[in-house]
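Researcher: Next sequence.
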Amino acid sequence: MKPYIYSLAALIVVVGAILVALSIASRKQPELGLVDGRLPPCPASPNCVCSEYPSNDAYIKPLGYNGSPENALARLKQVIGDTGGEVIGEEADYLHAVYQTPWLRFIDDVELRLDKHQQVIHVRSASRVGRSDFGANRKRVETIRAAFNE
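Model: Next structure:
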């Protein structure tokens, strides 16, 4: 019985150490921003969604808006704060926000680009570490969409 308990304890310690290491690794901010005027495409891993590339499996619809672009950006900043995010970067027609998971405090990046001509806001939400996010980024964008459309 003791070897079983020791093995289980060792497994728990190893898994815990891996999760802590991933959490620490997520603190390093990746290079983000517009590439040729667009949000960057998602990597091959399934922990990202983006509205800029409709033929990709990571595609998600952009957010639509009515009214002025300035009002849309102001509303978007409010929604990000209301949904638990924090805007950490802002340029003309571009926002970068971060969301932190409650457990282990992993950091995910959300980038938004306002397209004045099509009256949409393109969005990219991506986990900094790991391979799968169990749909967290897609759910986050849909939460932002619902709050933005209220």
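Model: The chain has a mean pLDDT of 87. Residues 2-25 form the longest helix (24 residues).
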